[in-house]
Amino acid sequence: MPFPEPEYSLHENQFYSIPMVTEKHGVEFFVKSSNFDVRYPLGSPARAEIENSVIRDYRNLVSRYCDVELQRLQWNKNLPTPHCAKLNNLEALRKEPLIVYGDGKQTLSFQYVSDLVVQETIDPNAKIEFRPNTEDDP
Description:
The protein is 36% helix and 14% strand. By secondary structure, it is of the alpha+beta class. It has one domain (18-131).
């Protein structure tokens, strides 16, 4: 049984060339047809489902890029981490707690959790949620 073609792509290409932006977080995505707004009107449950998928896929993509940036920081602590910043911004914009595993005093790639400025610069009211440290994290 063949898989249906996706309704959107996070990257522009020859098939997905019409730019769209999610209503909630302004995440850009691309669709095939100018008929997209007719099939998925703003405010409809179907549009909300598509946009939630876009945001989830975008978060996963940015998270993978952030992981690579954090690994590269081990070789050169002066490298920028733009995808990690995007990920932090997205979490804060979603009004979800910023997750810290462990007590926040452990280091990862030369950065203390307390050095992050996300809460102060993006949303001073953002909650920080502490969770038990993962077993494989020293």
